[in-house]
Amino acid sequence: MLQIRAGTKCIAFLIAAGAILAGCQSSSVDGLAAYGDSAKTLEDDAAVAFYKNDELITTGKLQFQEKNYGKSYAIYKRAVDVFPQDPAAWLGLAASADMVARFDTSDRAYQRLSRMIGNTPVYYNNIGYSHLLRGDLRNARRYFLKAYELDPGNEVTARNLELMKNSVNHPQRG
């Protein structure tokens, strides 16, 4: 849990956290990531000290697992601002953006991830699932097969290929 301590770092953190929570109540997806002028203070390297190393990613992952995709989107958006070299932050942002149909954001995240972890089953599974959500079954299959080639025993890849098969067969059901 968060421990409140006196000092300006604590106050700045609470303001930033309040901005994230306030943004989550917005009906606009764009409003979820609007942090106001307080975000400018995070460009300073000292701002990283406001967060434990994995606090944002852990919180974003929890929100994603609880299917609070708007909240996870906002949290992961903050995480990539604070930790721009962390692939876990970018993966979380991409997946959250996919779930709220912000494919423009997920495309940018996957482009960034391609330079970080591009030739891995995790990358190919995630980008494949993104294309599956969009209804782009041809590219989804292509990415899932790349993941399969890299790791044939990967259970996530097997489930994704099964989803793909079910998506293709769905129109044939009556």
Describe the 3D structure.
- This protein is mainly α and 174 residues long.
- It has a domain of 121 residues: Alpha Horseshoe (Serine Threonine Protein Phosphatase 5, Tetratricopeptide repeat).
- It contains eight helices and no strands.
Number of helices, counting only DSSP H or I runs of 4 residues or more? 8
Overall strand count? 0
Structural class: mainly alpha
Note the run of SSEs as H and E.
HHHHHHHH
- Poorly predicted residue ranges: 1-49
CATH superfamily of the domain at 52-172: Tetratricopeptide repeat domain
CATH class of the domain at 52-172: Mainly Alpha
CATH A-level architecture of the domain at 52-172 = Alpha Horseshoe
Strand composition percent = under 5%
Termini Cα gap = 51 Å
Shape: globular
Protein name: Tetratricopeptide repeat-containing protein
Signal peptide: 1-22
TPR repeats: 121-154
Keywords: Repeat, Signal, TPR repeat
